[in-house]
Amino acid sequence: MCAESYLLTSNFAHPGRDGNRITTVVATPGQGSDRPQEVSYTDTKVIGNGSFGVVYQAKLCDTGELVAIKKVLQDKRFKNRELQIMRRLDHQNIVKLKYFFYSSGEKKDEVYLNLVLEYIPETVYRVARHHSKNKQTIPISFIKLYMYQLMRSLAYIHSLGICHRDIKPQNLLLDPETGVLKLCDFGSAKHLVRGEPNVSYICSRYYRAPELIFGATDYTTQIDVWSGGCVLAELLLGQPIFPGDSGVDQLVEIIKVLGTPTREQIYEMNRNYSEFKFPQIKAHPWQKVRENVQYPIHGGCVLAELLLGQPIFPGDSGVDQLVEIIKVLGTPTREQIYEMNRNYSEFKFPQIKAHPWQKVFRARTPPEAIDLVSKLLEYTPSARLTPLRACAHPFFDELREVNTRLPSGRELPPLFNFTEHELRIEPSLNLKLMPEHARGSLPRAWINMSGSAIKMPFSRATVTKSNLAGNFTLPSLESTQDKLG
After folding, report:
1. Which residues bind ATP (predicted)?
2. Does 166 participate in catalysis according to the annotation?
3. What is the pLDDT of residue 263?
């Protein structure tokens, strides 16, 4: 990447007529013109922070509109990837970049990028947590509305070759009055290019696709689809479907539902794997098992439980318990396995059958919802539905009915105002995506177009057994962030 030049703005602050502080900066519009202009805002307050920086809420003086200002430290050596991507995006289900400007930091040569974004008051995460605290599940009509808009936003960014790489409920903004959902936080997003490697240590836990856990660096935009499937399952269950404090934990949770992946599936997730074994994990020091235990535990599970106040190796199955044991004792050596069972020649992960999806969810969960989850959470990335095919799934048919309303009685937000670009993504789906009552506003040629599909990001051909050689092993999970991006 090349070095970036910046138009540094000096924040000019002065009191307004009501006594509130007004800040005026020179900012560039997020879309369209590159001509800088003065922008004034007031009522600034911190609403979020993290390793990325700080997010403020403010009010634009000229319109009274609330905005969110995301302030991040800018590395002068590189262009900011989030800014480059945000300037390309224009979709009703993606948070809009209104302006951006640079400001100086307290330290010498310190530069901050400020992204001025439209402000949306709620998130799917907070809505889900509210229902969970009240021991309620989110009404299925809202789940349909949220997931449809998420999949539509993914279809759009994927058609541009952009992978979000951090789909989770916290990054799904909601307007509770209109029901509009907008995807936000493109800080991890990247334009994926065939043949260029990417970091595998990406995406938040609980929502990481298995190919990322397996250390793949040539993944596709379908990792976002897996994350979306996890979000759907979480909204239906009221809790994350694949929780875990580590990649090992999460992989075990995935295997308990999907079963042990086949050789073909592992090959499709990461072609660099030649055998499927359990990862090598170092033993955890006994002194650190619990800080208030003042001496090493040598006396077995009962003694450990008395000292800890809880079972040391809990688990609903043998696999769970084995993982808990390995997390403390480390992966057993060949000699130790031989001493435990002389019929074992090496330590392979046990073969586990897939758990019926119907038994994962509550009895009253709509079968269409379960079917959609099962088609999003596939080991093989290319076997997962594309986002637009997910939008066409029968689970969302109710949204396409002419009389469907929000529970409040208000009309649904715009769901079928597809642009020509969107209708060129997978033209064969257009008649399904566009209900009869919504077609009048679009040129008939757009709806009936064929043979002009947008070229989507690369996907792998289906693998056959003849492509494969050797045995398959579970990944090393000690990967760290590298320079691939």
Report:
1. 71
2. yes
3. 86
pLDDT of amino acid 42:
95
Which of 168, 23, 6, 2 minimizes the C-alpha distance to 78?
2
Q: What is the rounded distance in angstroms from the CA atom of residue 19 to the CA atom of residue 92?
A: 36
The DSSP code for 269 is H
The rounded distance, in Å, linking the Cα atoms of 140 and 403 is 17
Range 8-119 classified under CATH 3.30.200.20: yes
Would you say 183 and 128 are in contact if contact means Cβ atoms under 8 Å apart?
no
The rounded distance, in Å, linking the Cα atoms of 300 and 293 is 15
Q: Apex CA 142: angle with CA 138 and CA 148, to 5°?
A: 130
* Strand segments (E) across 32-109: 37-50, 53-60, 66-73, 97-104
**Residue 71 among known ligand-binding residues:** yes
The whole-angstrom distance between residue 395's C-alpha and the CA centroid of its chain comes to 21
Could you tell me the residue ranges of all domains in the chain?
A: 8-119, 121-281+331-485, 286-330
Catalogue the E-assigned strands of 51-187: 53-60, 66-73, 97-104, 111-118, 122-123, 162-163, 172-174, 181-183
Mean pLDDT of 429-435: 95
Among 192, 162, 269, 275, CA closest to 226: 269
What Rg value do the Cα atoms of the chain yield, rounded?
25
- Find the catalytic residue in 75, 166, 224, 371: 166
Number of C-alpha atoms within 13 angstroms, CB side, residue 469?
0
CATH 1.10.510.10 fits 121-281+331-485, yes or no: yes
179 and 101 Cβ atoms separated by less than 8 Å: no
Q: Give residue 24's pLDDT band: very low, low, confident or very high (50, 70, 90).
A: very high
Residues in Cβ contact with 328 at an 8 Å cutoff, skipping those fewer than 6 apart: 283, 284, 286, 289, 312, 313
Residue partners of 37: CB distance under 8 A and separation at least 6: 26, 27, 28, 29
Answer yes or no: same fold for 8-119 and 121-281+331-485.
Answer: no
Q: Are β-strands 66-73 and 97-104 bridged in parallel, bridged antiparallel, or unpaired?
A: unpaired
> pLDDT tens for residues 311-368?
988 876 666 677 678 777 776 776 777 777 676 655 566 678 999 999 999 999 999 9
